[in-house]
Specification:
The protein contains 11 helices and 6 strands. With 294 residues, the protein is an alpha/beta fold.
């Protein structure tokens, strides 16, 4: 075989190998994303291939032109898939985990408890009477056992949904991971009733995102929206105190007074500026407006 023939064989094999070298990488990026690939390397490689293509065109070298066109297509496909995978990963990483309490945050438990108490004992207590205090503080000692017994399974079946709650939570689920976290251990008989209440009014919340617990410090979330400040003591994320008559005097935590304000708080979050992990310390300014009202 002549030198010319060997040269043609070697050149053809080299062109095939260098041209097809990115096929395995293309398959890997499609399966796993391209986070481990250097964008600078891809850009430099594409620029170099472009120069080789220009060289081939100037010298009318068909083999050089064909090899580099194929290489540009393959490497360009890898770069596009890497970019798309990176954007998708960033969007997924920016989804916040929001934990939401049920009683007096989603469900109007105060109104139902007052209704039952007033009916049972001929009292005339109103929501405004509970400013800064719990109902238990108004109940005479001889009525306390009966008042506690009112918190049976039927109590939780009849609770009204607070205004705008369904709409705002539905909106949050489109952008974030929402969990309903209720301290059902305080009233063990409420498990079944609370679950059915949530399925009736919030069917878009998957059952796997409903958490019955005692200490909410076990919840791994970015935010906890709750009416009881005690649950924030061991919680590692950011607290949002939902206004209720009994917590009127609480000043330690940022406060929201309605679901319209909850929508405002999370609507203010600039998701493009969030880190690709959990919330950074610099994010504290996002709640400035709400904290000013607390």
């Amino acid at each position: 075989m002549s030198v010319t023939t060997w040269s043609a064989v070697v050149g053809t094999v080299a062109a095939l190998l260098t041209t097809l070298a990115f096929l395995p990488q293309l398959a890997k990026v499609r399966r796993q994303g391209g986070g481990d690939l250097s964008s600078s390397m891809l850009a430099m490689y594409l620029f170099g291939q472009g120069l080789w293509l220009a060289y081939g065109l100037l010298n009318r070298a068909g083999a050089v032109i064909g090899a580099n066109v194929a290489s540009i297509i393959l490497v360009g496909a890898v770069a596009v898939m890497k970019s798309r995978a990176g954007r998708s990963a960033a969007v997924r990483a920016r989804r916040l985990r929001i934990a939401i309490d049920m009683d007096e945050v989603m469900a109007d438990a105060v109104a139902e408890h007052l209704r039952r108490y007033n009916t049972a004992f001929g009292a005339r207590l109103a929501v405004d009477d509970l400013h800064g205090r719990h109902l238990e503080e108004f109940v005479p000692p001889e009525h306390r056992a009966a008042a506690e017994a009112m918190l049976d399974s039927t109590f939780f079946e009849q609770l009204a949904v607070l205004p705008d709650c369904q709409d705002v939570i539905r909106e949050l689920t489109l952008r974030h991971d929402v969990f309903i976290v209720t301290a059902a251990m305080d009233v063990p008989c409420s498990f079944d009733a609370k679950y059915h209440w949530l399925r009736r009014y919030f069917p878009f919340i998957p059952s796997s995102n409903i958490v019955f617990c005692g200490d909410k410090g076990v919840i791994d979330a970015d935010y906890l929206i709750d009416d009881r400040a005690r649950h924030f003591l061991s919680f590692k994320g950011r607290p949002l105190l939902f206004s209720a008559p009994h917590n009127a005097g609480e000043t330690r935590y940022p406060r929201v007074s309605s679901w319209a304000e909850v929508r405002e708080v999370f609507g203010r979050l600039d998701t493009d500026s969030l880190p690709h992990t959990r919330i950074a310390s610099g994010e504290s300014s996002l709640l400035t407006g709400v904290e000013a009202r607390s």
